[in-house]
Records
---
Amino acid sequence: MPSSTSEIKNSAVPNQVTGWRCVVCEFVFEGVAPPKGCPRCSSTSREFVPLKDRVKLTYDGEPFDVLLINGSTHRANNTGYMVDLAEQELIARGVSYRRYNLTEYTIDHCWCCYSMKAEFCTYPCRNPSDDMPAFHEMLAASKAVIVASSINWNNMSARLKDFLDRTTCMQNLFHLNKQGLTQGKIAGILICGHEDGAITTAMDIYLNFQQMGYILAPFGIAFRTHGSQFNSSTDAEFFRNDEMVIADTKGVVRNVIELMQLEIEPRLKDKLVPVSE
């Protein structure tokens, strides 16, 4: 059965004072419901989660098909809408998946061990203290990954860049003449932004996965921008009423599923020559 590990909507117990944390800027609000907008960063109430102690992410080892990653700083804004559409399509097709909004998790900057000594960049990663080791395990366990990103300065979000930097230990397996964990898996990419930079962002994301042996699904990139001539406050209404966003996002998901179901990964095992920088 499909499974999702992230909740977009939150609820509070009536008449009970509750703490709420903005996942974007860490602002804390006390009340029975989150504020309509964050007074610090202007994020909507959908970016608030109940205030509680953070628990380190772990992977339970249960197999699943698609790892769905929302790399935007705003988990429930425009990029999140594309991820919602992707999730709906995975459910409709009966494909097992796990969804994660990176803004809800702790991913440290890469220590860049490789730049000191190539063999120091090892798998498992030398930094076991954050949530990234669980993501490493899920990348290895899943058959495909679908990654969504906003456009920040003509490129991916900083959170997603940290996530991809931390996959270096998986890529470096090939350099150390060890068995890779990701070759032959399938990738799809979703990009959403206010203005320019969609293709640049998509290709920079895919370059990371290509270096780990992932195969981009045919027609495996969907992107949509609104335009710099419009105020960014109008973006949400535009995207949610745009038929192209719906059709293209669900199309990418279907294409990823179709390629994944060909079971290419096991057929390519031990047949590929790792050419990776």
Note: The CA atoms of residues 58 and 134 lie 5 Å apart.
---
Amino acid sequence: MTTTAHDSRTYGYDDLPGLMSLMTGDEKHGPAATSTLDVLWVLYDRVLRVTPERREDPARDRFLLSKGHGPMAYYAVLAAKGFVPADWLPGFGAYDSPLGHHPDRVLVPGAEIGSGSLGHGLPIAVGSALGLRAQGLHDPAVWVLIGDAELDEGSNHEAIAFAGPAGLERLHTIVVDNSSASHARPGGIAARFEAAGWSAVSVDGRDHEALHAAFTAAHPGRPHVVVARVEPKAG
């Protein structure tokens, strides 16, 4: 557990709804945020090798939030883990707040990319994994979280098709599937990645133990995708 810079409290998973409730206003994209909450918590609490003190360390793991159009869960987890102060949360979306409706890597400590436009995060993650490998940095893992609707974007399919044959073993993708994609995938989402040479696992996106097991599964020589199924988006 960690604390925020201006708060002596320690925060756990049960505190996340309260932290999210501090962020109010229009254009919240609530379902986009709540669908990612458990995935983000398990990653930051049990998997990612990055801390506020190590966020500039070349050997850190990288987490890229491609699904950046609903970042409240992300901000809540960053606050719980000490990357940003919790007293920033009530200002969410205000003109003078660093916490915008889309994350800005220049303004949000711990954010690796500015995101929210669909279809960008996975290609950036592929480039990040390639760049780390070219530098001889074989230990850091690259993680990217996308939504199932992002698979409507062709840029993601180019990235999927490249990463498998390239053997980007340190690349990990999480697809949060809330049934919001316009186009169905024959055989399901995991099958699309498997066809391109990825290791793939589908799990309940609310089950923390299942998520942790899927995130830490061995996948030698191949990139890895976890399809985290959650309740369908309403409306």
Note: Residues 121-134 form the longest helix (14 residues).
